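WARN retry 2 of 3 for item q-0093 after timeout on previous attempt; input resubmitted unchanged.
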Amino acid sequence: MERILLLLARRTPVLLIFIRSNIYIVWGPRTPMRLALLLLMLAIPVLMASADGGPKVVCSTTVLGSIVRDLAGDSVEVEVIASPSICPGHYDARPSDAYAIAEADLILYHGIEPWVEELRTASGSRAPAVRITGGWNTPDSLKSMYINVSRTLDKYLGLNTSAKLDRCLRAIDETAEDLRRIAELKGFSGKPVVSMMFQADFLKFLGFRIVATFPPPEKVSAKLFDSIVRNASEGKAVLVVDNLQSGTEIGSRIASQVNAVEVALSNFPGSPPELGNMTQVMRWNAERLAEALSHAELRASVGESRSQAQIYEALAAILAVIAIVEAILILRRR
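OK item q-0093 returned
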């Protein structure tokens, strides 16, 4: 809730209004009364809008932030801490994050962010911090997360979001059907792939066959890398799927070793910036997979054509040698 502080400045001849976390209205004895009243009246709508901004919900990630916005809309103020371009477990908290936590009425986090409790302690916040567990990159897990967040908003802020929740759940079901259609049209079913572990559930939902998985880069030892490459080669992987927020170096190295196509999928709204929530992220990811698989199939077709050409060239060389030998034999008989 914004506070209005009226400060009397003895030598200030004009009315000044500063609006930030607090609102300061300052005037001096030489300020004309009509001007002061006029400017105060102009400030009232701003003050009312600030006061009616609703409770502040601080979310650790854009996944949670997008869900709160979908459910609560303008009835709450949402602030997201971690950038969508990096894994929240590796996010480096800033002093401004502690300030955001201090102003929160409710804090939502996944449980993979060690910095949340540190920020609460540093800020002295007494706002409830609620852990929203589970995954979010398949339609069913995303629906569970929407339901969980809706219940949390009702329990701690008294917000009834049931109507918007129903609409969101229907939208997720529609997205699931669209994803299944894309998977069938593009022939995802049974295609062998290597997956970064954070994208494995999504790939399984689409029908891909996962022949190997790998953890975040810092956990991939040389021995593990060799094992992944071996499984990928034996499984004839056509794609290596990276998680954008975890980096693409490991996936690119694996792909180069097994002659597969590397593709990076996102796990958070806002990366890329035009993706507003997880249903949009899922559709974007499916399109990236379709493009990558098309590339892999084209590469395989070109490789097959080259192999056939090499076979024909070898046969032609053999036939030429045979012809030469036969010609020599004929000449000797004469």
